[in-house]
Amino acid sequence: INFPQLEPSYLVKIIQNRVDYAHKNGYAIYSRWVQEFTPIFQEYKNDPEGWSKIFILREAMYAFPHAKWFWYIDEYSLIMRDDINLNNYLLRPKALDPIMLRNQPLIPPDGAVKTYTHTVAEDVSLILTQNERNLNTDNLIIKNDLTGRAILELWMDPLFRKYPSFRKDESNALAHLLQWHPVILSKTAIVPPRAIAALAPEKAPETRSNEFIYQSADFVVSLGDCKISKDCESILAPYWDKTQMLGANQGNGQEQPNHAAQEKLNKRDTTDKIDKIMGAEDNIANDADIVNNENI
Fold it and tell me: How many helices (H) and strands (E) are present in the chain, helices listed first?
Protein backbone atom coordinates (compact mmCIF):
# COMPACT_ATOMS: atom_id res chain seq x y z
CA ILE A 1 0.00 0.00 0.00
CA ASN A 2 1.42 3.35 -1.07
CA PHE A 3 0.08 5.41 1.82
CA PRO A 4 1.17 8.96 0.84
CA GLN A 5 -0.38 8.66 -2.61
CA LEU A 6 -3.91 7.85 -1.41
CA GLU A 7 -6.56 9.49 0.71
CA PRO A 8 -7.07 7.83 4.11
CA SER A 9 -10.79 7.42 3.41
CA TYR A 10 -9.92 5.52 0.23
CA LEU A 11 -7.46 3.28 2.07
CA VAL A 12 -10.05 2.41 4.71
CA LYS A 13 -12.34 1.02 2.03
CA ILE A 14 -9.60 -0.91 0.24
CA ILE A 15 -8.22 -2.50 3.41
CA GLN A 16 -11.69 -3.28 4.76
CA ASN A 17 -12.53 -4.91 1.41
CA ARG A 18 -9.63 -7.34 1.85
CA VAL A 19 -10.47 -8.03 5.50
CA ASP A 20 -14.10 -8.78 4.66
CA TYR A 21 -13.18 -11.14 1.81
CA ALA A 22 -10.55 -12.98 3.86
CA HIS A 23 -12.87 -13.32 6.86
CA LYS A 24 -15.71 -14.74 4.79
CA ASN A 25 -13.57 -17.22 2.86
CA GLY A 26 -11.21 -18.34 5.63
CA TYR A 27 -8.05 -16.81 4.17
CA ALA A 28 -5.22 -14.87 5.75
CA ILE A 29 -4.17 -11.43 4.51
CA TYR A 30 -0.82 -9.69 4.53
CA SER A 31 -0.36 -5.97 3.91
CA ARG A 32 2.79 -3.84 3.85
CA TRP A 33 3.60 -0.22 3.15
CA VAL A 34 5.52 0.40 -0.07
CA GLN A 35 7.75 2.80 1.84
CA GLU A 36 9.23 -0.08 3.84
CA PHE A 37 11.00 -1.27 0.70
CA THR A 38 11.96 2.08 -0.83
CA PRO A 39 15.65 1.95 0.26
CA ILE A 40 16.13 -1.26 -1.74
CA PHE A 41 15.22 0.51 -4.97
CA GLN A 42 17.28 3.65 -4.61
CA GLU A 43 20.49 2.25 -6.12
CA TYR A 44 18.92 1.43 -9.49
CA LYS A 45 16.18 4.06 -9.36
CA ASN A 46 13.44 1.45 -9.56
CA ASP A 47 9.76 2.35 -9.30
CA PRO A 48 8.95 1.35 -5.69
CA GLU A 49 5.25 0.85 -6.26
CA GLY A 50 5.77 -1.64 -9.08
CA TRP A 51 8.80 -3.50 -7.83
CA SER A 52 7.75 -3.73 -4.19
CA LYS A 53 5.07 -6.34 -5.02
CA ILE A 54 7.78 -8.95 -5.63
CA PHE A 55 9.46 -8.30 -2.30
CA ILE A 56 6.12 -8.24 -0.49
CA LEU A 57 5.19 -11.61 -1.98
CA ARG A 58 8.48 -13.08 -0.81
CA GLU A 59 7.94 -11.65 2.68
CA ALA A 60 4.44 -13.14 2.71
CA MET A 61 5.88 -16.56 1.91
CA TYR A 62 8.17 -16.20 4.92
CA ALA A 63 5.23 -15.14 7.09
CA PHE A 64 2.96 -17.99 5.94
CA PRO A 65 5.28 -20.82 4.91
CA HIS A 66 2.53 -23.43 4.83
CA ALA A 67 0.12 -21.51 2.60
CA LYS A 68 -0.13 -23.08 -0.84
CA TRP A 69 -1.03 -19.99 -2.91
CA PHE A 70 -0.58 -16.23 -2.63
CA TRP A 71 -2.78 -13.70 -4.40
CA TYR A 72 -1.25 -10.28 -4.94
CA ILE A 73 -3.95 -7.68 -5.48
CA ASP A 74 -2.92 -4.04 -5.70
CA GLU A 75 -4.49 -1.08 -3.90
CA TYR A 76 -6.19 0.08 -7.10
CA SER A 77 -8.44 -2.98 -7.29
CA LEU A 78 -11.63 -3.90 -5.45
CA ILE A 79 -13.00 -7.39 -4.81
CA MET A 80 -16.63 -7.20 -5.92
CA ARG A 81 -17.78 -10.73 -5.09
CA ASP A 82 -16.99 -12.10 -1.65
CA ASP A 83 -19.24 -15.05 -2.46
CA ILE A 84 -16.60 -16.33 -4.89
CA ASN A 85 -14.02 -18.53 -3.23
CA LEU A 86 -10.76 -18.10 -5.14
CA ASN A 87 -9.70 -21.69 -4.60
CA ASN A 88 -12.87 -23.09 -6.17
CA TYR A 89 -13.08 -20.34 -8.78
CA LEU A 90 -9.56 -20.52 -10.19
CA LEU A 91 -6.99 -22.54 -8.28
CA ARG A 92 -8.42 -26.01 -8.59
CA PRO A 93 -7.06 -27.63 -11.77
CA LYS A 94 -10.57 -28.44 -13.01
CA ALA A 95 -11.45 -24.74 -12.74
CA LEU A 96 -8.20 -23.40 -14.17
CA ASP A 97 -7.72 -25.74 -17.11
CA PRO A 98 -10.72 -24.62 -19.23
CA ILE A 99 -9.86 -20.91 -19.07
CA MET A 100 -6.09 -21.05 -19.65
CA LEU A 101 -5.20 -19.11 -22.79
CA ARG A 102 -3.07 -21.53 -24.79
CA ASN A 103 -0.90 -20.55 -27.75
CA GLN A 104 -1.39 -16.98 -26.56
CA PRO A 105 1.28 -14.35 -27.43
CA LEU A 106 3.02 -13.26 -24.23
CA ILE A 107 3.25 -9.74 -25.62
CA PRO A 108 -0.08 -8.87 -27.25
CA PRO A 109 -1.21 -8.73 -29.87
CA ASP A 110 1.30 -10.69 -31.96
CA GLY A 111 4.43 -11.46 -29.92
CA ALA A 112 6.59 -14.30 -31.20
CA VAL A 113 6.73 -16.24 -27.93
CA LYS A 114 3.44 -17.88 -26.97
CA THR A 115 2.08 -19.87 -24.06
CA TYR A 116 2.30 -23.61 -24.50
CA THR A 117 -0.65 -25.62 -25.75
CA HIS A 118 0.19 -28.58 -23.51
CA THR A 119 0.62 -26.85 -20.13
CA VAL A 120 -0.97 -28.96 -17.40
CA ALA A 121 -3.12 -27.04 -14.91
CA GLU A 122 -1.82 -29.13 -11.99
CA ASP A 123 1.72 -27.93 -12.77
CA VAL A 124 0.96 -24.21 -12.89
CA SER A 125 2.79 -22.00 -10.38
CA LEU A 126 1.99 -18.53 -11.77
CA ILE A 127 -1.41 -17.21 -12.87
CA LEU A 128 -1.85 -13.76 -14.35
CA THR A 129 -3.63 -11.75 -17.03
CA GLN A 130 -2.67 -9.35 -19.80
CA ASN A 131 -3.59 -5.88 -20.90
CA GLU A 132 -3.50 -4.85 -24.54
CA ARG A 133 0.28 -4.36 -24.61
CA ASN A 134 1.91 -6.51 -21.95
CA LEU A 135 1.48 -8.77 -18.96
CA ASN A 136 -0.68 -7.32 -16.19
CA THR A 137 1.07 -7.62 -12.84
CA ASP A 138 -1.49 -5.59 -10.87
CA ASN A 139 -3.20 -8.83 -9.87
CA LEU A 140 -1.39 -12.15 -9.95
CA ILE A 141 -1.43 -15.47 -8.15
CA ILE A 142 1.72 -17.43 -7.33
CA LYS A 143 2.20 -20.85 -5.81
CA ASN A 144 4.37 -21.39 -2.76
CA ASP A 145 6.46 -24.14 -4.34
CA LEU A 146 9.97 -24.41 -5.75
CA THR A 147 8.99 -22.84 -9.08
CA GLY A 148 6.99 -20.01 -7.51
CA ARG A 149 9.83 -19.08 -5.18
CA ALA A 150 12.34 -19.32 -8.03
CA ILE A 151 10.24 -16.94 -10.14
CA LEU A 152 10.32 -14.34 -7.36
CA GLU A 153 14.05 -14.71 -6.78
CA LEU A 154 14.87 -14.37 -10.49
CA TRP A 155 12.40 -11.52 -10.99
CA MET A 156 13.89 -9.43 -8.17
CA ASP A 157 17.50 -10.08 -9.16
CA PRO A 158 19.60 -6.89 -9.40
CA LEU A 159 20.49 -7.80 -13.01
CA PHE A 160 16.84 -7.25 -13.89
CA ARG A 161 16.31 -4.24 -11.66
CA LYS A 162 19.26 -2.31 -13.05
CA TYR A 163 18.47 -2.97 -16.72
CA PRO A 164 17.27 0.36 -18.22
CA SER A 165 14.07 -1.02 -19.76
CA PHE A 166 13.02 -2.70 -16.53
CA ARG A 167 13.82 -0.06 -13.91
CA LYS A 168 10.42 1.60 -14.08
CA ASP A 169 8.33 -1.37 -15.22
CA GLU A 170 8.58 -4.72 -13.47
CA SER A 171 6.11 -6.27 -15.96
CA ASN A 172 8.73 -5.91 -18.71
CA ALA A 173 11.17 -7.83 -16.54
CA LEU A 174 8.65 -10.63 -15.99
CA ALA A 175 7.87 -10.81 -19.72
CA HIS A 176 11.60 -11.16 -20.44
CA LEU A 177 11.90 -13.87 -17.79
CA LEU A 178 9.08 -15.91 -19.32
CA GLN A 179 10.31 -15.43 -22.88
CA TRP A 180 13.82 -16.68 -22.12
CA HIS A 181 13.08 -19.40 -19.57
CA PRO A 182 10.83 -22.03 -21.15
CA VAL A 183 10.66 -24.12 -17.98
CA ILE A 184 9.07 -21.19 -16.13
CA LEU A 185 6.78 -20.45 -19.08
CA SER A 186 5.61 -24.06 -18.95
CA LYS A 187 4.50 -23.44 -15.35
CA THR A 188 2.63 -20.23 -16.19
CA ALA A 189 -1.05 -19.75 -17.02
CA ILE A 190 -2.48 -16.63 -18.62
CA VAL A 191 -6.20 -16.28 -18.00
CA PRO A 192 -8.79 -13.89 -19.48
CA PRO A 193 -8.46 -10.32 -18.13
CA ARG A 194 -11.88 -10.28 -16.51
CA ALA A 195 -11.07 -13.36 -14.42
CA ILE A 196 -9.19 -11.31 -11.80
CA ALA A 197 -8.53 -7.87 -13.32
CA ALA A 198 -11.55 -6.42 -15.12
CA LEU A 199 -10.98 -2.75 -15.91
CA ALA A 200 -13.49 -0.16 -14.72
CA PRO A 201 -15.33 1.24 -17.76
CA GLU A 202 -14.57 4.76 -16.55
CA LYS A 203 -10.85 4.10 -17.13
CA ALA A 204 -11.16 2.15 -20.38
CA PRO A 205 -10.45 3.76 -23.77
CA GLU A 206 -13.43 3.72 -26.11
CA THR A 207 -11.57 1.37 -28.42
CA ARG A 208 -10.87 -1.23 -25.73
CA SER A 209 -12.47 -4.63 -26.23
CA ASN A 210 -15.18 -5.84 -23.85
CA GLU A 211 -12.92 -8.74 -22.87
CA PHE A 212 -11.06 -6.26 -20.63
CA ILE A 213 -13.98 -4.24 -19.25
CA TYR A 214 -15.78 -4.92 -15.98
CA GLN A 215 -19.27 -6.39 -16.14
CA SER A 216 -21.73 -6.50 -13.26
CA ALA A 217 -21.04 -10.10 -12.18
CA ASP A 218 -17.23 -9.97 -12.39
CA PHE A 219 -15.03 -10.93 -9.44
CA VAL A 220 -12.64 -7.96 -9.30
CA VAL A 221 -12.64 -4.45 -10.73
CA SER A 222 -9.41 -2.58 -11.44
CA LEU A 223 -9.38 1.21 -11.28
CA GLY A 224 -6.68 1.45 -13.94
CA ASP A 225 -4.54 4.58 -13.96
CA CYS A 226 -6.54 6.45 -11.33
CA LYS A 227 -3.31 7.06 -9.42
CA ILE A 228 -2.11 9.18 -12.37
CA SER A 229 -5.38 11.00 -12.94
CA LYS A 230 -5.86 11.43 -9.16
CA ASP A 231 -9.48 10.31 -9.23
CA CYS A 232 -9.29 6.99 -7.37
CA GLU A 233 -11.81 7.99 -4.71
CA SER A 234 -14.47 9.08 -7.19
CA ILE A 235 -13.98 6.03 -9.42
CA LEU A 236 -14.10 3.70 -6.42
CA ALA A 237 -17.28 5.16 -4.90
CA PRO A 238 -20.00 3.41 -6.94
CA TYR A 239 -18.22 0.06 -6.81
CA TRP A 240 -17.67 0.32 -3.06
CA ASP A 241 -21.33 1.19 -2.55
CA LYS A 242 -22.32 -1.85 -4.60
CA THR A 243 -20.21 -4.19 -2.46
CA GLN A 244 -21.79 -2.73 0.68
CA MET A 245 -25.32 -3.14 -0.64
CA LEU A 246 -24.68 -6.72 -1.66
CA GLY A 247 -23.11 -7.51 1.70
CA ALA A 248 -25.84 -5.85 3.75
CA ASN A 249 -28.63 -7.60 1.86
CA GLN A 250 -27.07 -10.97 1.12
CA GLY A 251 -29.71 -13.58 0.65
CA ASN A 252 -32.79 -11.35 0.42
CA GLY A 253 -32.39 -10.48 -3.24
CA GLN A 254 -32.82 -6.77 -2.59
CA GLU A 255 -30.38 -3.91 -2.59
CA GLN A 256 -30.96 -1.17 -0.05
CA PRO A 257 -28.81 1.90 0.49
CA ASN A 258 -26.06 1.39 3.01
CA HIS A 259 -25.76 4.73 4.74
CA ALA A 260 -22.56 3.72 6.52
CA ALA A 261 -20.86 3.35 3.13
CA GLN A 262 -21.85 6.92 2.30
CA GLU A 263 -20.52 8.38 5.52
CA LYS A 264 -18.10 11.23 5.06
CA LEU A 265 -14.98 10.37 6.98
CA ASN A 266 -12.51 12.98 8.08
CA LYS A 267 -8.79 12.24 8.08
CA ARG A 268 -8.48 11.76 11.82
CA ASP A 269 -11.32 9.25 11.87
CA THR A 270 -9.95 7.35 8.92
CA THR A 271 -6.45 7.17 10.39
CA ASP A 272 -7.95 5.51 13.48
CA LYS A 273 -9.91 3.15 11.27
CA ILE A 274 -6.80 2.17 9.32
CA ASP A 275 -4.99 1.37 12.56
CA LYS A 276 -7.88 -0.80 13.74
CA ILE A 277 -8.22 -2.61 10.43
CA MET A 278 -4.50 -3.26 10.13
CA GLY A 279 -4.62 -4.68 13.64
CA ALA A 280 -7.53 -6.89 12.66
CA GLU A 281 -5.40 -8.42 9.93
CA ASP A 282 -3.21 -10.06 12.56
CA ASN A 283 -6.26 -11.68 14.15
CA ILE A 284 -7.50 -12.98 10.82
CA ALA A 285 -4.05 -14.33 9.98
CA ASN A 286 -3.88 -16.13 13.31
CA ASP A 287 -7.38 -17.56 12.99
CA ALA A 288 -7.08 -18.68 9.36
CA ASP A 289 -6.34 -22.35 8.75
CA ILE A 290 -3.31 -21.61 6.57
CA VAL A 291 -1.83 -25.03 7.21
CA ASN A 292 -4.59 -26.47 5.05
CA ASN A 293 -3.07 -26.75 1.58
CA GLU A 294 -6.35 -25.71 -0.01
CA ASN A 295 -6.11 -22.24 1.57
CA ILE A 296 -4.26 -19.18 0.35
Answer: 12, 7
